Amino acid sequence: MFRRLFSTARSLRKTLVLIESAAGQLNPASLSTVTAATQIGEPITALVVDPSVSAAASKIAGITNVLQTSQPTSYLAEEISPLVQKLITENDYSHFLTSGSTIGKSMLPRLGALLDVQPLSDITKVVDAQTFTRPIYAGNAIATIKSKDSTILASVRASSFPPASEASQDPPAPVTEIEPGQTSTRTEFVSEDLVSSDRPELGGAKRVVAGGRGLKDKETFDKLVDPLATKLKAAIGASRAAVDAGFCDNSLQVGQTGKIVAPELYVAVGISGAIQHLAGMKDSQVIVAINKDAEAPIFNVADVGLVGDLNEIIPELTEKL
């Protein structure tokens, strides 16, 4: 009898998804997280801590209802984790999904500690409601993991799931206002500085031009990478070596400890192809590698490889485009 009741309880799937936003726009990674949630099953509840995007969230395909905080709440893990814990406990959600963004990576371990369950990070496939796949060993192997926790917490690798359709649900899902609640944290959100750019956002871009150590310095990085990315209408990325050398901001880092991307086109300029970098871009549909070292590991995963001097090749390529 106990086993039968336990099995029935586990079959009642209710998923809570954190919808991230910035500057009044939905985060594309959150749309991919909704797609992963639909593969688990309905109902799917969206949690929105920025009330300005609740209307947009209610129109996402697959969302059955939206929970909106009564006032804007920061994405600090210290503030949002207790809120999610309360919602999961009071509403008996079987799953909680968030994108594998900086926000997701920050809050998920804390939430796991509060609920005393083991979070699953960076899932790439939903096998069934309890079974998922995720990369291990810098993406060189894929592990299939089955969770036995009563509540399953997971972050989603956005590049592995197509984004859910926006503004495609009519009528939109109902929106319910909730109180953010009080936390005892001594951490306070002060401010944030958002970098605005006309370029596509790196995590969801269809084309990416990334520069590496081979560009030598920031001046060369800007001189060669920027015009090429502009011609291709591409986002700009970088290897960790380029970021550590100060060629560009660390928000542009692609790799195991940076952003995971899978664009239609990835152009690697002066990147040798360390395993940590390959883990963040090797799922790209077409990889173009340009490097003077013919033995560089990047050529092992490249669809198109060109060996030569970057200072000659990139300006010529940019001019021809």
Describe this structure as you would to a colleague:
The protein has 321 residues and is an alpha/beta fold. It folds into two domains: 170 residues, 3-Layer(aba) Sandwich (Rossmann fold), CATH 3.40.50.620; 119 residues, TPP-binding domain (Rossmann fold), CATH 3.40.50.1220. 28% of the residues lie in helices and 23% in strands. Strands 7-11-6-1-4-5-12 form a seven-stranded parallel β-sheet. The chain has a five-stranded parallel β-sheet with strand order 14-13-15-16-17. A three-stranded antiparallel β-sheet has the order 8-9-10. A hairpin with a 4-residue loop joins β8 and β9. α4 packs across α5 and α6 packs parallel to α9. The termini are far apart. The N terminus is likely disordered.
Using the 3D structure, state the CATH architecture of the largest domain: 3-Layer(aba) Sandwich
Largest sheet properties = 7 strands, parallel
Q: What structural category arises from helix and sheet content?
A: alpha/beta
Average of pLDDT: 89
Relative helix content:
25-40%
What's the domain count?
2
| CATH fold description of the largest domain | Rossmann fold
H and E order: HEEEHEHEHEHEEEEEEEHEHEHEEH
Q: Mind telling me the CATH superfamily name of the largest domain? A: HUPs
Strand order of the largest sheet: 7-11-6-1-4-5-12
* Straight-line distance between termini: 69 Å
Helix run count: 9
Question: How many distinct beta strands?
Answer: 17
Report Rg: 21 Å
Q: Unreliable runs, pLDDT <50, ≥5 residues?
A: 1-11
Shape, principal axes of CA atoms: elongated
Strand content: 15-25%
InterPro entries: DHS-like_NAD/FAD-binding_dom, ETF_a/b_N, ETF_a/FixB, ETF_alpha_N, ETF_asu_C, ETF_asu_C_CS, Rossmann-like_a/b/a_fold
Cofactor: FAD
Subunit structure: Heterodimer of an alpha and a beta subunit.
Keywords: Electron transport, FAD, Flavoprotein, Mitochondrion, Transport
